[in-house]
Amino acid sequence: MTQSRSATWMLPAALLAGLLAGAAGGAAAGGHVAAGVAIVAVAEIVLLLSRLRHGTRNTMASMPDTPLLRHDRFMHRSRRLASNLHDLRSAAASLPDAIVLLDQQQRVRWFNHAAESLLGLRRPHDRNAFLQARLHGSELANWLQGDSSHPLHDIAAPGQPSRHINVEMLPFGHHQHLLLARDISHLTRLEQIRRDFVANVSHELRTPLTVIHGYLELLDPEDVPDLAPVLGEMRTQSRRMGQIVEDLLTLSRLETQNTVSDERVPMASLLATLRKEAEAISQGRHRIVLDATAHVDLLGSPKDLHSALSNLVSNAVRYTPADGTITIRWERTPDGALYSVNDTGFGIPADHLARLTERFYRVSSSRSRDSGGTGLGLSIVKHVLNLHQGRLEIHSTPGQGSTFACRFGKERLLPEHTGEDDFPPDFPDTP
Ligand code: ADP
């Protein structure tokens, strides 16, 4: 308080002193002014120092608005901004995710510590390096060269191949980009543990279930007429459990696979088999139509494609009341070919569609169980299609029916092979 008061009387005092000094020296009018200005400046500095030492926001607001004060405010703001910037940089530098700031030509402008360990960038010589050239040969470089607007999932980190990362490119500032790479190794490990657990449990259950099922089959209901209905139910449930275990093992295998065999899948014979399967499940309750106009074969895994395409047929029959129609189509599209199964069944409300390919997701659990479903069929379909770079599309109207369509790209098509001797169908006749 005493300090700021002493600062307030210093300005007029200094002014007075300046004028007195000018008058005493007998200087010209210009000299008076110059001396006055100089003293005012000194006074301002004294005031500023005083404010810097003890001043508050209020003291500053109450001060006269002079060029020096404005300069001081500017410097103060600049220092605060520089300090904030420094804090932000330090925070970004120590984030566990790798961050690389790229210019319009994808040259490295800045990167944090995690980018050094995960992406293998080095300071200072990687500053201004072209990121794609710097990471040449890695999956990340290929992604940077192509369409990097879609995130890249679960790849080996170029700087530490034992670690897994997800990468994303975000627009930033003026034509700049931020490349973010998140270390997901712990998630990948957890996912691997989950997968192994499911696979091991399924595998362990297989043998006891086979034994139980075998004994149940040996029992003749006529020998135990009182238990005949119970025996029938036990057989149905043990078969269902067996199917769940088989589907879980199939899913585990598909999940760990990155590629599929590139074999010819003769579509004419596969479609004929699918039709027979539909008729076998339907037992004459539905009209089954086959409409194959594509005249191309598929390239991929015959066993997996059969399993996926047959799942859709089986679902169509199981979720369509008697007298409905099931239409299996195989047609060409501008981008490749489309396999679809259309039914006139129960249909699916729109809010369920996005979740249908999740394991054990059912629109109606009782309907699925009653029809012998495991809740894993569409999950298997999705995995098989992913392995063949295909896509599943679902259209449905409750009460009217559904269409499940598999889109295959041109790279998966082969001209139809008609030499039956060379390519005998290796698909089972019945499911
Ligand atoms: P599920 O073994 O239960 O049939 P899926 O994974 O094959 O398991 O299908 C998941 C769920 O999707 C089914 O429980 C059913 O509710 C629904 N669904 C699948 N296909 C059809 C269809 N053609 N019509 C109506 N609902 C269907």
From TrEMBL:
Return the InterPro entries for the record: BphY/WalK/GraS-like, HATPase_C_sf, HATPase_dom, His_kinase_dom, HisK_dim/P_dom, HisK_dim/P_sf, PAS, PAS-like_dom_sf
Task: Quote the CDD domains the UniProt record gives.
Answer: HisKA
Give a yes or no for keyword Membrane in this entry: yes
What Enzyme Commission number does this protein have? Answer: 2.7.13.3
Q: Name one GO cellular component term.
A: plasma membrane
GO MF terms listed in the record are: ATP binding; phosphoprotein phosphatase activity; phosphorelay sensor kinase activity
Q: What is its main location?
A: membrane
What the entry lists under SMART domains is as follows:
HATPase_c, HisKA, PAS
According to UniProt, the reaction catalysed is: ATP + protein L-histidine = ADP + protein N-phospho-L-histidine
Q: Where are the transmembrane segments?
A: 33-50
Q: Which residues form the Histidine kinase domain?
A: 200-412
Q: Which GO terms describe its biological process?
A: cellular response to phosphate starvation; phosphate ion transport
Highest taxon in the source lineage? Bacteria
> What is this protein's function per UniProt?
Member of the two-component regulatory system PhoR/PhoB involved in the phosphate regulon genes expression. PhoR may function as a membrane-associated protein kinase that phosphorylates PhoB in response to environmental signals.
Full protein name: Phosphate regulon sensor protein PhoR
- What organism is the protein native to? Rhodanobacter glycinis
